[in-house]
Amino acid sequence: MTDRLAQLSNHLAQPSDPTRLDGQVVLITGAAQGIGRATAELLASKGAKIAINDLDKERANAAVEALQKAGHEAFCYCGDVMDVKFPPRLIKAVLERFGRINVLVNSAGFLNDAAIHKMTEEKFDVVMKIHNYTPYRMIHALSGHWMDPANRAMTKTIINISSTSGLHGAMGQINYATAKAGIIGLTKTVAAEWGRYGVRCNTVAYGWIDTRMTKPPDPDEKVVIGGQQIMSGIPLNAKKWRDTSDIAVGRPGTVEDAAGVMLFLASPLSAYVTGTCVECTGGRYM
Ligand SMILES: NC(=O)c1ccc[n+]([C@@H]2O[C@H](COP(=O)([O-])OP(=O)(O)OC[C@H]3O[C@@H](n4cnc5c(N)ncnc54)[C@H](O)[C@@H]3O)[C@@H](O)[C@H]2O)c1
Taking Cα atoms as reference points, which of 107, 122, 81 lies closest to residue 26? Predict the structure, then answer.
């Protein structure tokens, strides 16, 4: 057997693992808990270096400590990602620490529900800001780094988060449903404009994933944005939403279920997938 053939047969016998992310730098907003944190843990276990952002410093630090204890490289840069001046600062901090960014996951978010007749400008506005303006500003802040011809060959992937509310509408969520539909158009536009720079951009529309956001409201669990106190949680009496009979697999999703899709979209397994919205819903609203 020639050297070349020997090399080839060796390569075929031991294919590299397409789920590995060794040396890749992943930045996740809202990663102190929930879907963002589970994604940080899974992607770190595949070799990625992790930069965490969140408003909640205590939980963000705990998430970073757990990653470091497990032998992974991680740090957090806390702050309100909705602040218009914050995204460029966050990108700069990650570049100073790790030298590059390969994957951006825009996960920071919250609900601020009200029936249409009770919705206020303030509640509508803050939800549009976190789920549309903020991902746009994060992506805009990456332009310089990702347009740089020196980074042409580097892996560059964005994952945004939509929801069944954005795909199908949802009672009490006129603000959230509007924003989560909007993020799909944003995603497709980034995929169309930046494909030529080697950037892939996708959205995941989750159904019911069991996190603080979907547990029954707890007075201690809230985000405070510009003086607005925004409670987390979905009331227990949201009967239609809490009924699992229309979920094909018959249960809410776990954060691990949610993170699995993130790994697929961050890894070379999805090298030819861009501009799409993957539904991770357990088969709800088929
Ligand atoms: N859980 C679900 O069923 C579900 C379904 C569809 C979509 N989503 C989306 O998934 C994403 C993550 O939600 P989750 O369920 O993990 O919620 P979560 O409440 O567990 O985590 C969200 C995190 O975002 C952080 N955050 C909020 N505003 C921030 C800001 N301005 N700056 C920095 N950090 C901020 C919070 O502090 C929190 O740690 C959100 O975009 C949400 O809309 C969730």
Answer: 107
Widest Cα–Cα separation across the chain: 77
Please check whether residue 3 lies inside any domain of the structure.
no
CATH number, domain of 147, equals 3.40.50.720
In a domain, 273, yes or no: yes
Q: If we measure between CA atoms, which residue out of 141, 224, 238 comes closest to residue 190? A: 141
Q: Are 233 and 214 in contact (CB under 8 A)?
A: yes
CB-based contact 174:124 (threshold 8 Å): yes
Query: Is residue 197 annotated as part of the catalytic site, yes or no?
Result: no
- For the chain, the domain total comes to 1
The answer, yes or no, to whether any atom of ligand 1 lies below 6 A from the CB of 203, is no
Structure tokens of 113?
């529900």
Q: Is 123 left (phi over 0), alpha (psi -120 to 50) or beta?
A: alpha
Evaluate: CB of 77 within 6 angstroms of ligand 1. Answer: no
Range of the domain at 74: 19-280
Residue 45, in any domain of the structure = yes
Per-residue pLDDT at 7: 47
Give tens-digit pLDDT for 115-124.
999 999 999 9
Rounded average pLDDT over 104-117? 97
Q: Is 39 in the pocket of ligand 1 (CB under 6 A)?
A: no
In a domain, 213, yes or no: yes
